[in-house]
User: What shape does this take?
Amino acid sequence: MVPYIAGAPTIYSSNLDVLRQVLSGDSKVVWQKPLGTIKPLAKWGRNLVASEDGDVWRRHRRVVGPAFNNKLYEMVWSETLNTYHQIEVAEGWTIKNTVVIPAVQVISTKLALLVIAKCGFGFSFDWLAPPTGPDGKMSIQEAFRVLADSHVVSFVAPDWVGHFPLPGFARVREAKNAFTGFMAREVAARKEEVRSESEDAEERSDTFTMLVRANERETGKWRLDDQELVGNVFIMLFAGHETTARALSAALALLALHQEIQNEVADQIISVVGYDRDPVYDDFNTLNKVLATFYETLRLFPPAYLLSRDAVEDTVLHLPNPLGQEGTTPLLVHEGTNIILDVIGIQYNPRYFPDPEAFKPSRWYNTSSDSESFSAFSLGQRACIGRKFATVEGVAFLTMLLRNWRVEPVCNTGETLDMWRERVLSQPDLGITLGVRDAPVRLLRRKHHTKL
Assistant: This one.
């Protein structure tokens, strides 16, 4: 597409092979993120996501990368289970055989918030913590929640937008001020803590502390400044909370509609975990049908709509020929051309996903947690670094819930299942990421787990 008046020539593609060429391999030096897509995400400080390709990105990746390791993933698994148990007690599930949840997003959003707070930041948040502290001011947990829920104003919109004389914006400003001051103190405290660690001391394994620890071991141009540390912390909050919360709510809505798939997944959970113990992190790779459910949900509701890249030199894309014809056709792309990769279009492209509108977790039954055959988290060296954090949390929560409960839709009076599907799934909620509309569900305790 060539603009009539101004702007760069643009290519639009919903082809997975093109996405792989742009995001993977040697193309990293040819295709770079446009500055216009980076600047809004650097509002809180330059970070791994909001950095150009080259030395700037490598510097952030060198510090942030070590924080995402198996020690963290074990913590994510453990804290997800702990939070699930808190939910059961706090919401009164332990004394019920039937639970009605008017919008499953209420549970998934708060779960994701607490897990990212505990594992990402090392904060000891509780499911029932009040929104204000003893002094009547907004608590840090509440500030954390407000910033996560108001992501457009908090992370993307210019600062002046937050000064509109509206009650909601005033609350966002209060949360921002509380959390900014808190994080400045935390950075200093974590640095001091890391510097005073003895070699035989048990190290904290939350992402924030490990990021600070990795940064303290760097010198010269590789070390991040305090604002960059805070920027990476906030992008973790933004990306980690939103993606996982929306994926879990969509997964539960889809499983509620597809009872046969839900039963198949639950049968695997019971065969692997049984009834007498909680799942452990070592079960993760065995629970492939739970992971496949999470993957298929993210295919239908991908965490990104579009990816944009600019060609910084002349290059060639090799376009697959139409189905039934072997080989590719070369396309010369000139320097300065922008390419828009339609992630939703790719995930619904029948060339790669037969019957693309259907919910079929079996597409992913033999796919590992780090396989590049799954592209909804992007691909290549700039793929989402939090991919395994999200999948571990998702598998842990779904395993606990589906082992104990059967999920079914709650229909309005006179509403059929097809009408429920239309209301909840057919008109996606367009936030920073893609999600489903409020999904009312009913939990029915499985017979083997009867409490009453």
Summary: The mean pLDDT is 86. Residues 162 and 169 are 5 Å apart (CA to CA).
